[in-house]
Design brief:
By secondary structure, this protein is of the alpha/beta class. 33% of the residues lie in helices and 17% in strands. It has 9 helices and 8 strands. The chain has an 8-stranded mixed β-sheet, with helices on both faces. The radius of gyration is 16 Å and the shape is globular.
Length: 211
């Protein structure tokens, strides 16, 4: 069975860990404080999960989820993620992360920043515009009328294919925004951000976004 590394054990990381374990994946989860602080979480997740360091989670994962505060993205290990797909849930909150001039001036996107940090990895925007509490509750089977849709963005068709499969397993349709340079359309304060929307509504909200 596929092993997924998760770097970041906040609300989103925990929700995705639970969802992946429930869907048969093995999970290796890490935070910035050390695996001993995740013992209770690993126990609650069961035999298919274990706590580890970020380096170990990056090494173990066949693909890896990065879900840390944006200000910490440079702490993500580079070497063990070479050649791997990295699902990026990051959002920019200047109140938490401090002002980042390139983002304030609209010269890049959060996912492009992570891609630059991980030049030999495939970065895919994922699960960034849904509340953590909704990840495990808002999904529905394929073909359900009004099924919620989530956006993704990547410079890789294979990366989009991977997250499309994962989204479907969690109960969501996928709308591809395009390359990482267009991922601003689903970032904070945009029409598509943290609202419930089906595929058509999401496509409309992405088109309405203004930078």
């Amino acid at each position: 069975m596929t092993t997924v590394g998760i770097i970041g054990a906040g609300n989103i990381g925990r929700a995705l860990a639970r969802g992946l374990v429930d869907r048969g994946y093995d999970v290796v989860i890490a935070n910035s404080r050390g695996p001993e602080t995740l013992a209770d979480l690993a126990e609650a997740l069961g035999d298919k999960a274990r706590a580890a360091t970020a380096q170990e989670a990056a090494e173990a994962g066949e693909f890896v989820i990065v879900t840390v505060p944006l200000k910490a993205y440079r702490e993500i290990p580079v070497a063990p993620l070479r050649g791997k797909t990295v699902l990026d849930t990051n959002n920019y909150y200047w109140e938490r992360d401090g002002h980042i001039a390139e983002l304030d001036q609209k010269r890049t996107t959060t996912s492009q920043m992570l891609q630059e940090h991980l030049p030999e990895s495939t970065v895919v925007k994922a699960f960034n515009h849904i509340m953590a509490a909704d990840i495990l509750t808002d999904g529905s089977p394929a073909g359900t009328p009004g099924r919620r849709a989530l956006a993704t963005s990547s410079d890789s068709a294979d990366g989009v294919a991977l997250i499309t499969r994962i989204y479907d397993e969690f109960g969501y349709d996928t709308v591809n925004v395009g390359p990482l340079s267009e991922s601003w359309r689903v970032e904070r304060d945009m029409p598509a951000y943290v609202v419930r929307q089906n595929r058509e509504e999401l496509e409309q909200n992405l088109a309405r976004a203004e930078r």
